[in-house]
Amino acid sequence: MGRLFCWLAGRSLRGLHRLGALLGWLAYLGSRRYRRLLRTNAGRAGLSPAQRRAAVAAAGKLVAEVPWLWVGAAAQPISRHLQWQGEALIDELLAAGRGLVLLSPHLGSFEVCAQAYAERWGARHPATVLYRPARQPWLREFEERSRQRPGLATAPTTLAGVRQMLRALRRGETVGLLPDQVPPEGQGVWAPFFGEPAYTMTLAARLLRQTGAPAAVIWARRLPRGAGFGVQVLPLPVALPPREAGVEADTEARAAAEVADAAAVNAAMEAVIRLAPEQYLWGYDRYKRPRRGRH
User: Fold this and answer.
1) Using CA atoms, how far apart are residues 232 and 254, in angstroms rounded to an integer?
2) In terms of DSSP H, where are the helices of 31-81?
3) CB-hemisphere CA count at 13 Å for 259?
4) ∠ CA(223), CA(225), CA(229), 5° rounding?
5) Mean pLDDT of all residues belonging to the chain
6) DSSP annotation string for 86-154
7) pLDDT tens profile 96-135
8) What is the pTM of this model?
9) By CB distance 3.0 to 4.6 Å, which of 112, 118, 149, 155 could disulfide with 220?
10) Where do the domains of the chain lie?
11) With contact defined as beta carbons under 8 Å apart, do 202 and 188 qualify?
12) CA-to-CA distance for 128 and 126, rounded, in angstroms?
């Protein structure tokens, strides 16, 4: 499998995206469960039939470009394939010296965001990104090795990973995470996402409240015909709600505050997803029950 990865990594991005679009449709037509999941999730957001069709192909492109990003892009500056928009916001927030929380939904090529940040700012302000290790041992090893870059570290979705990210922020560094990823049991709350309750991580809001770090959104639009990626940086579209003093001492009030925070984060991600809904990963089982966490 490693040989296939390396062979694919040497193909052009345009060719991989063509292959990925085909794979996306094969997966859609070959799995009734996946087809139902994508249709239902996209329907919650009101996507048109044309947007749903584009989302099917985009999901396949996401898979097909992984070897290029993990192996092929490591041999050359990824900046050659990027078009930046709003990057001055990162410079501005980093200058405050309080660290930075970068949030990315499962939109476009989210793998690109960490690499793009590390190449541009990682030497002065290293980044730590949260990820869920693959279940297959061979893929987990390959994934961990391939995602390592100068100025870029990874943290697993465990309590140890949370502590790693808190330490990074307190050093004035950057952390990145996908807040629309379903967290392990005990690390989230149920909050609305496109009108339906979804188990939502509390980590994003905790990082902001416990460290005082600023936040921004970063996402990478997949450009047509393999032309690269448009990386956009935005202020957080929806701010966390104000929290009254003494909330932490009251169990019920604290639980309600966590739900309000998670709802605000979900609303912010919804606003970003609506910028390019045809590139969102609607086939992701966002509304599933969480798995048991590991410590």
Assistant:
1) 34
2) 32-44, 49-64, 66-70
3) 11
4) 25
5) 90
6) STHHHHHHHTTTS-EEEE--SBB-HHHHHHHHHHHHTTTS-EEEEEPPPSSHHHHHHHHHHH-BTTEEE
7) 999 999 999 999 999 899 999 999 999 999 999 998 766 6
8) 0.92
9) 112
10) 79-279
11) yes
12) 7
Distance CA 17, CA 63 (A): 9
Helix (H) or strand (E) holding 176: strand 174-177
Reported as type and span, the H/E element at residue 200 is: strand 196-201
Residue 3 in tokens: 């040989």
Coil, helix or strand at residue 187 = coil
Q: Can you read off the two tokens belonging to residue 152? A: 């870029």
State how far the Cα of 195 lies from the Cα of 8, in Å rounded to an integer: 39
Tokens of 233: 């940086």
Q: In angstroms, how far is the first alpha carbon of the chain from the final one?
A: 30
196-201 and 188-193 as β-strands: parallel, antiparallel, unpaired?
antiparallel
Q: Tokens standing for 12?
A: 């052009």
Closest CA to 177 of 165, 159, 185, 188: 165
pLDDT digits (tens, 9 = 90+) for 109-120: 998 999 999 999
Tell me 239's DSSP state.
P
The answer to whether 148 and 113 have CB atoms below 8 angstroms apart is: no
Paired tokens of 144: 């961990």
